[in-house]
Specification:
The protein is 42% helix and 14% strand. It is built from 11 helices and 9 strands. The strands form 2 sheets. Strands 1, 2, 3, 4, 5, 6 and 7 form a 7-stranded mixed beta sheet that branches. A two-stranded antiparallel sheet has the order 8-9.
Amino acid sequence: MPEPDRFTGDVVEALANAGIFRLRACLVGSVAFSTYAGHLGVRLPAASFQTGDADFAQDYAISADVGDSLPPILDILKGLDPTFRPVMHRSGSPRVTGFINRSGYKVEFLTGNRGSDDHMDKPADMPALGGASAEPLRFLDFLIYEPIRAVMLHKSGISVIVPAPERYAVHKLIVASRHAVDTLGSAKRDKDLRQAGLLFEALNVANRLNELSDALHEACERGVAWRSAIRTGVGHMSRADRAKTEALFKELGVDPFKEDR
């Protein structure tokens, strides 16, 4: 079973001990991906989840209604590394959605944006996150709906909440289409598509195609923008991965490739 680097494990452990998962936040990104090998009982290559950050997401309604809060996030992180500091938001907002240490390691907080891109660059106040706000992102509500319990390999193991693997795979396919067209954006897109393809194969091996089918159908039924994003994501895959993905979608009775009128 793959494990993240030691510092990432320490960050997740500290926030878990502080109650972040009790308050129904969800570990997302490549650190969450690292838990799927154990959850699905498959092998996943270590290179596919290497990261220099830890991302957490929480639904705004949960944060507002849970009636409890973490201790100050910055205090928790400074307990691990006193060089952690808040990151000023690019919009100039005084709200803080992320923290960074001297070596460049980032801890960021996200939430769903069910509206338009007009809500981008407007950090959401999150009452349960110990003074941290969250970056609203399109499609994130789909990712963190009905998350699962998994174990992150660190020391004796950490119980974490992560997205369901089928939703993670579909979400990565969708967001791959939205990265900037530059060197960094291309690297992120390739990583997203690699993770999506690996999970499609893993879900097949684990006899979990019914769950994948449900997630794909749900995404496609959410509208033209969602189907277009799926098509674009598949189109950016390598020729071999694209052929396998299109064949899998056909087997599942999902057709996001038919152009919308």
